[in-house]
Write a structure and sequence with these properties.
Length: 378
Amino acid sequence: MMIFTKQFPLFGFAVSLLFINARYATAFEFNVNLPSSRAMSMAGAFVAQADDSSAIWYNPAGMQLHSLITNDVTLESGRNLTPKLESDINEGVSYDTSSALKYIASYTKKIPFVEKNTLNLGAGVAVIRLYSLAINVNERSSAIDSTQTFGIVDADYYQSSIAVNKKLGSTISVGATLDFIWTNVRCHTFDRCVKNGPTGFGYTLGYMHNIFSDLDNVLRLGLVWRSNVDLSYSSIPEHEYNLTVALEDYLPGRPQQLELGASWQYSTTFALINSNVAFGKSEWSKQVVDNQPETDYSYFAMGNEWVFSVAKNRSLAFRLGYRYSDPENPKLGSSITSYTLGGGTNLTEKIYFDVAIEQRALDKEKLDMLTMSVSYQN
């Protein structure tokens, strides 16, 4: 390990961050979506592979080290985790799924107005549905009735990202995104709900390194860091003042995240195989909701992809994945387990179709989610 970290100091630094004095995330972790049908079917273990437009989320340094794809446009729709309220709020919140547009992304290595991209730059944009939460805003909504509160508020979280990446030599690439987080809110019991939820800005940094490659094997390391994002209102209409101030206190933002992964791509006589592992943590404890403590989560994920050539210019992919998330404080959260599978094929030379199924389990609750995506790649 000492020799390895001397040769790759950034990798050694990342390992130290992950496993020395690491804190692990909260019950909110159960609601988090895994963007991209392809990556989702490998349980989100994609930080070191990141070879399509979903790199904008998983690792913005991705795609620059992959020469096969120059342009990628992807549209994804599927089932999304949503809170389902019990008849009594004291009984807690269970979960259901609903159909939603989950992910839109576009990436290119051909920068507009640059005829020859000698700088080895790439750029992309994406809109991602992050998660949906139900929050009990236990603040007085009436100056007359001290028992009347704003009650339950549903919040759907979205992220818009602008990404840029650059290849450094033949084995290293770096990337970054500017992220805008916004929310749509709905009140269950309060009649005068706000039109828009609070928003915030953050950023993401990515690093990818080909540490070994030959004709049949490529071994990569990937590292991504997402900043903490707190939500607030830039301006507040006077008639909505009380609720908006309460939402700033009650709605969590995006947690700080650090993820490290490895990907091994190798060829066999029957298939091209991508094997991935990833370790990370989400610092939900920094997202304090009305002074209520939250807990961080650590997670481990692994996934495999087998790509078979079935005809001229036609391929068929099969994928499997497993993900386990564990809270630092078991009193504030429960372990989460996900099993995933999926597949894909190219409908034409440039159009690809992918599908993924995830079963996510928290305590006694198990939910199945189906996601499908269509991509144009060349």
